[in-house]
Amino acid sequence: MQKSLLYLTTALAVISCKDQDRSMASTEQPVDTLALARSIHEKVITIDTHCDINVNNFTDSINYTQELDTQITLPKMEAGGLDAAWFIVYTGQDELNAEGYEKAYANAISKFEAIHRLTEEIAPEAIELAYTAEDVRNIAAKGKKVALIGIENGYPVGTDINNVKKFYDMGGRYMSLAHQGHSQLSDSNTGEKDSVWLHNGLSDLGREVIREMNKYGMMVDISHPSKPAIKEMIELTKAPVIASHSSARALCDHSRNLDDEQLEWIKENGGVVQTVAFSTYVNQDKHEAFNSSVLGLLSEKAAEQGFELLDRGAARQLPDEERNAYYKKYMALRASAQSQIDSLSMAGDPVDVSDFVDHVDYLVKKIGIDHVGISSDFDGGGGIYGWNDASETFNVTLELVRRGYTEEEIQKLWGDNLLRVMEEVERVAASLQESE
Q1: Would residue 178 count as lying in a domain?
Q2: Domain tally, the chain
Q3: Are residue 96 and residue 187 in the same domain, yes or no?
Q4: Residue 40: in which H helix or E strand, if any?
Q5: Which of 129, 240, 243, 310 is most buried, judged by most C-beta within 10 A?
Q6: Which residue has the higher pLDDT, 11 or 224?
């Protein structure tokens, strides 16, 4: 597998200009550490399991072949040495009725089609869609970037169980059954706020969906559902599960993170936790302290432009077109203020790659190296100092090397563990289909 070495100089330049004291890739790093990290990063397949998309960035005129104001594009993947990205078919939660399901289904299909358009029409020479773990390895070996599809929120399934197979056929290889709010399939972690639950775990339809996912080879994603729902999923599934973007609750007490009991369930199940670089889930105290300064800066700039800033929850609940327009304006606003934000980071203490790898360390010690992976949640709120877009991906590998992880261990963390789960899910599906 050949990777561009551009990520090396990009990472060095971007980080060193932000904060020399916290720099993972500064010139103060021992040469042998940098050389070892370069060598490992070049060899392993690096897989990020959660990157949100906006269909407006998948057109003939505006697309991921260009340098957009998004955290992930093909140039950024090339610059950072990121080989594979799971692009997300995300649908926000709405009413549990026929109209809501119809709109959600249409939204999901538009995102599936956008990803296919990128890989089949816009840039087939640069990126290819993978359907199996073997596909991932083969595509990466050809020197192409790899696209995979994950489904965030099973709400678009509606009440038609056949949609599981439809989504699978379009490339969906993992799905979570809930998001911000209870779906018709599963309770959400958000129920912790008010202790109001819809199903006390999974619904009957949700249990049927799990069985269908097992049958066709779609990984069960336990990020976002409630703890009782997660327990049911793990008891019901015949294959390993994943948490596509979650971190350790013992280090950051957020309902989106996984507590030690849940981690043990995943270990026993043979699954994998894809540690997420979402600053609120990595260190909430540091995030809030630094973010208050950033928010003040952005609020001033937004007011000058007549732009109303929304919190993440409110933005995620906007109708699709309004939400996409809002994020486009927000990313442009943040880009215009980036130099000032970087200046704030010099005096402040933002959540960074070191904080992120603290979660990796904890998870590895708690459940073992075979059950931990890496994710960003780019363009969905993710990103930390040192890994704030795909061009900075090398800095994660460098920090892992600094902490003594071996090449074999880093290979597992960056992708092999996730591919192992994919292969087992594929094997279970083949077995279930043969027994029919």
Answers
A1: yes
A2: 2
A3: yes
A4: helix 31-43
A5: 243
A6: 224
**Calpha distance 426→428 (Å, rounded):** 6
Written as one letter, the residue type at 118 is: L
| Dist CA 247 CA 56 (whole Å) | 30
* Structural domain includes residue 224: yes
pLDDT at position 313 = 75
CB 91 within 8 A of CB 104: yes
Q: Is 1 part of any domain?
A: no
3-state secondary structure of 368: coil
114, two tokens = 């956008």
Structural domain boundaries enclosing 309: 285-350
- Say how far apart CA 216 and CA 77 lie, in whole Å: 30
User: What residues form DSSP beta bridges with 6?
Assistant: none
Element housing 48 (H / E): strand 47-52
Round to whole Å and give the CA distance between 181 and 197: 10
The verdict on 162 and 197 lying in the same domain is yes
- Give residue-wise pLDDT tens across range 356-371: 999 999 999 999 999 9
* Closest to 275 in 3D by CA, of 156, 376, 150: 376
- Do 226 and 289 have their domain in common? no
| Length reported for the chain | 436
At 253-286, the pLDDT tens digits run 999 999 999 999 999 999 999 999 999 999 999 9
Of 52-66, 170-184, 280-294, 366-380, minimum mean pLDDT range: 280-294
Contact 392, 78 (CB under 8 A): no
Token pair 């486009």: residue: 328
Residue 404 carries which side chain, given as an amino acid letter?
A: G
The answer to whether residues 332 and 296 belong to one domain is yes
CATH of the domain at 158: 3.20.20.140
Whether residue 62 is found in the same domain as residue 72: yes
* pLDDT value for 311: 80
Q: What is the pLDDT of residues 156-165, one digit of tens each?
A: 999 999 999 9
- Taking the CA atoms of 162, 245, 18 and 16 in sequence, report the sign of the dihedral they define: negative
- Look at residue 13 and tell me if it is in a domain: yes
Whether residue 290 sits in one domain with residue 194: no
pLDDT band at 348 (very low <50, low <70, confident <90, very high): low
Using a cut of 0.85, tell me whether the model's pTM lies above it: yes
User: Which residues, 6+ apart, have CB-to-CB distance to 58 below 8 Å?
Assistant: 64, 114, 115, 117, 118, 122
Percentage of residues of the chain with pLDDT beyond 70: 92
CB 383 within 8 A of CB 18: no
Measured CA distances, 380 to 166, 195, 323, 376 (Å):
25, 26, 11, 9
Residues 369-376 have a mean pLDDT of 98
90 token code pair: 């995300």
